[in-house]
Design a protein that fits this description.
With 71 residues, the chain is mainly β. The protein contains no helices and 6 strands. It has one domain. A 4-stranded antiparallel β-sheet has the order 3-4-5-6, with no helix packed on it. The radius of gyration is 12 Å and the shape is globular. It starts with a strand and ends in a 16-residue tail after the last strand.
Length: 71
């Protein structure tokens, strides 16, 4: 994942001990109140807010093999 501020590109590096679920990102959706939902080719989604990642999985009731695309 790469951040673009209108002038330059900067690779995203998760904080120590936090990782995205995969590099196979299919969609990123910015929320009006802040934060980004990240959907992958397979597996659960992630939510990035204030520099921290929260990954969601079957433990939160999501299927393990779904392609998450946020509308």
């Amino acid at each position: 994942m790469v951040r673009f501020d209108g002038e330059s590109f900067e690779p995203y590096h998760p904080p120590s001990g936090e990782d995205l679920l995969s590099s196979d990102i299919s969609v990123v959706t910015a929320m009006p109140e802040g934060g980004l939902w990240i959907g992958y080719q397979s597996g659960g989604p992630s939510f990035l807010e204030n520099g921290h990642i929260r990954n969601f999985s079957e433990a939160e009731g999501l299927p393990s093999t779904h392609n998450f695309e946020m509308a």
